[in-house]
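Entry for the shared binder. Reason: the reviewer on the internal report wants the predicted structure included alongside the sequence.
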Amino acid sequence: MIKVQASKNARHFIVMLCVLLSSIACKKKVKNTNKDSESNKYNILFIIVDDLRPLLGSYGANYIYSPNIDSLARKGLRFDNAFAQAPICSPSRMSFLTGLRPHQSQLTGNNMQLRDKLPTIQTLPQLFKEQGYQTRAHGKVFHQGNGDSISWHYYDDSPKQRSTYHLRENISINDAYSKTKRGRPFEAADVHDSLYTDGIIANRAVRELDSFSSNEPFFLAVGLLKPHLPFNAPKKYWDLYSHSFKNYPVVNKKPKNIPPLAFQNSGELRRYYTVPKNGSLKQSLKDSLTQGYMACVSYADAQIGRLLSGLKQNNYTNNTIVVVIGDHGYHLGDFEDWCKNTQYKMDARVPLIIYHPDKPSQIITQTVELVDLYPTLIDLAGLSKPKHELSGQSLAKLFDDGNYLLEKNYALTENKRKHHLGFGLTQGNYRLIEWRKRKNIDEIDEVELYDYQNTYYEKINVAQEKAYDSILNIMQLKMNKILSDL
């Protein structure tokens, strides 16, 4: 009788132990599988890719290997006509992170500090931070060296050196010319992903996903450096394009009837070793640059794949909104130009993909702007609005109805030259470009107008053609109204 009772006690102990272990396991699992029961908030994974134009499989470039971005595009909202507010890095990033246009914030150059101009502004991540989110960032989110510690619980923009070389010859060249010129504009070392900068950034961001507390939702921003120059990526990504880089449909001729200040002689590229200061590039160099850019796109895509896998491994996929954007467009020899900082569509149009776990996939063809991200994300997350007035409009209603007509149906891009400010207005099939005096913005020196009805790029400036007088008048009235409201 005593033995039977002992046996029953043992069984009871084992059952209770199993229940306890099961309870612990369930509690651990609850950490990630659902939106937090108290906050009921979605997490945000915000991915910025430097110099990424819509040269992706999901945007019609079937010769580009970008499976991870393409998969996300198929599951989320893919915006086909999204535009940056500036065709260079910092002004664009400052714009979508503050919700203000560059002309409003006066953050129009790469070396301007945010708090010098806007000491009390609530940035997008700062707003999430102040409303209960864990906010962390890795890589180039704000322009490197111009980060904003107030916006984050933790911010690491290292490694800041995007020109990491691994081949001995390239290291020697980079060291020898570091005071007068940059190193080679590309490299294809046979090394692991983690030895180049984006691999390092991705490693740190994936570890971050493992460390978030279950008590608060998170806003994790990740800024990848490629495909920014130099086009350094592991050899295996270069090998993807040993021949297919020739499929890129380069636009050789510049538009007709353009003003002299339209281009800047590919200034960023000219600073690299072997690149001539002026004139055309050798075809072999053009080929290497094109192949290198594509290799870097695939390298960046692979790091995004690792981030998405990190979400899945931590069971965050079903409660995390994922954003992937390029900060501005890019020229790959188009118009005999390289890099960015023109007012043309190739420098202004960007990929914009937003995955929402509880919304259907859709393709949005309406014209939108990166400055729309701020109001969109706070609406999707159910947060209160910031203290300052935002320049963009929320795109949140498109997630339920892709045919919903947005009130604002245009995009404005800004940049500057020595004595001029350039403003590019895209609306429907047309783009108006005005070059205005920096000292007097009301004074217009040059006007360009382009019709995209039968082309995806600028062929001829039709601003002086009588057949376009009414279109030009409508667009200029619109431009004046927008600028007067800034």
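Summary line for the report: The longest strand covers residues 362-369.
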